[in-house]
Write a structure and sequence with these properties.
Blueprint: H1 8-15, H2 35-52, E1 54-60, E2 66-71, E3 77-84, H3 89-104, H4 112-129, H5 136-155, H6 171-179
Parallel strand pairs: 1-3
Antiparallel strand pairs: 2-3
Length: 180
């Protein structure tokens, strides 16, 4: 039996192909978040904001962040961040990375990619110190972020790569340097 559309919207819905349903083996297992674990993340947020005097400008829905300082006319300093709210290892490390920029100090490390490296190292150390799980995805995110930061610095004319960052050198740059 064939259906006929009464309205344009009905016609459009008839034209749509049905969504493919993932097979049971490819679906992510539905696992409820642990309330106890979320309480630990909540406490981490409270502790870090208090310890470093940081204000959250905005909780982001993406796993990206930003940290900055504001100085008022009287010389007062306001430390600000935007990051995802910690709900798992990835959002936790991004949150801690942004706090890490304040912890290690803005402008204390040059070039900027070295500051990124120290902020990531600080975040991972803090995760370990607070007993949070450092997953392979977190480690991969750190490595990707560092490769991006270093390649950006090289594109902008970085002449000397700090020894801490040599492990993140782009392959094509490393090969070009060995061929010289």
């Amino acid at each position: 039996m064939r259906r006929f559309a009464d309205t344009l919207w009905d016609l459009l819905s008839l034209e749509r192909r049905p969504r493919r349903i993932r097979s049971a083996s490819r679906q992510r297992p539905a696992r409820p978040r642990s309330e106890a674990m979320q309480k630990r993340y909540d406490q981490l947020v409270i502790d870090m904001k208090e310890a470093w005097g940081v204000k959250v400008h905005k909780w982001r829905s993406s796993t990206s962040g930003c940290a900055w300082e504001l100085r008022d006319r009287n010389g007062g300093l306001t430390r600000m961040i935007e990051s995802p709210y910690p709900r798992g290892p990835m959002s936790c490390v991004v949150f801690l990375h942004e706090i890490g920029h304040h912890a290690i100090g803005f402008g204390k490390h040059s070039p900027r990619c070295l500051e990124e490296y120290f902020a990531w190292q600080w975040a991972i150390r803090e995760m370990k110190a607070h007993g949070f799980n450092i997953t392979p995805a977190v480690q991969k995110r750190f490595e990707q972020a560092m490769r991006y930061a270093l390649s950006k610095a090289l594109r902008r004319g970085l002449k000397r790569v700090p020894s801490e960052l040599l492990q993140f050198m782009p392959r094509e740059t490393t090969q070009a340097m060995t061929n010289i």
